[in-house]
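Fold it.
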Amino acid sequence: MVIKYSLIGKRVASRRRQLKLTQAQLAEKTELTSKYISNIETSHSLPSIESLMQLCAALDVTPNYLLFGISEKQETTKLDEVNRLLSTCTPQQLEKVIEFIEFITNRS
């Protein structure tokens, strides 16, 4: 997955507006400054990992949402589909699936 850094700020701003929060209110909830929130939303600053986690908590979203635009519902839906498919596999097929997953995760 590729992180489009310019979209992180747009997602922060969009979610903040959904929650009807001002930048000042979000800053207070996250213990960040209003200026820093503004800079993140306008892509003038990238949030640190700590700031990202504070934003996620305050906005009630996952890091995957801010970084990739993937909602928790989308994550759950994909995992449910994988689990459904895996439940139909034979032990031999499961072994091949495990080998394939190990192969692709080691390549990244």
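The radius of gyration is 18 Å.
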